[in-house]
Amino acid sequence: MNWPLLVILVLAAFLLLMPLLSYLSARRSVGKNVAASINGTNIPSSRLVYFYSAHCGPCRQMTPIIDEMAKKHEKVIKYDARQAPETAAAYGIRATPTTVLVEDNVITEVLLGAKSQRQLEKLLQRIS
Q1: Backbone dihedral angles phi then psi of residue 120, each to the nearest 5 degrees
Q2: What distance in Å separates the CA atoms of residue 59 and residue 65, rounded to the nearest whole number?
Q3: Which of 32, 56, 105, 110 is the residue whose CA sits 20 to 30 A from 46?
Q4: Nearest to 127 by CA among 27, 43, 37
Q5: CB–CB of 45/96 below 8 Å?
Q6: What is the mean pLDDT of each run of 10 residues along the chain (128 residues)?
Q7: pTM higher than 0.85 for the full model?
Q8: Which positions are annotated as active-site residues?
Q9: Number of Cβ atoms within 10 Å of the Cβ of 26
């Protein structure tokens, strides 16, 4: 048996399955109720929640866009997934960047990966 080939195939399968597992986890989160307050702070019942991490390349591109949107809209909230692991777990976050649309404290859409400002503004219009 060719062991190096087997190892390469197993690693390739693993790398292909990881995004699939993140996607399936995101799909399971849709329809889930989430808390109206986090750490004692009340948050809007309809909101756009962005999860990022400092070491994530796509997050570094997307975070300035979210920061600008958050200055203009109180319904835009961001969390560092490593600094707020309980919050990330409550939303079912397994990868960053992830953007979650919450309407009346129910997750209605989960977007994985970097998104453009245009895509984010369309989501925000749904709850404004």
Answers
A1: -70, -40
A2: 10
A3: 56
A4: 43
A5: no
A6: 86 84 81 78 88 94 95 94 92 92 94 94 90
A7: no
A8: 56, 59
A9: 21
Q: Please report the pLDDT score of residue 78 as a whole number.
A: 94
Would the CA dihedral through 36, 29, 82, 125 be positive or negative? negative
Query: Are the C-beta atoms of residues 51 and 24 closer than 8 Å to each other?
Result: no
Specify the DSSP class assigned to residue 33.
B
pLDDT at 17: 83
Domain that holds residue 24: 3-127
Which residues lie closer than 8 Å to 113 by C-beta, 6 or more apart?
58, 97
Tell me the CATH number at 116.
Answer: 3.40.30.10
- Start-to-end C-alpha separation, the chain: 60
Tally of structural domains, the chain: 1
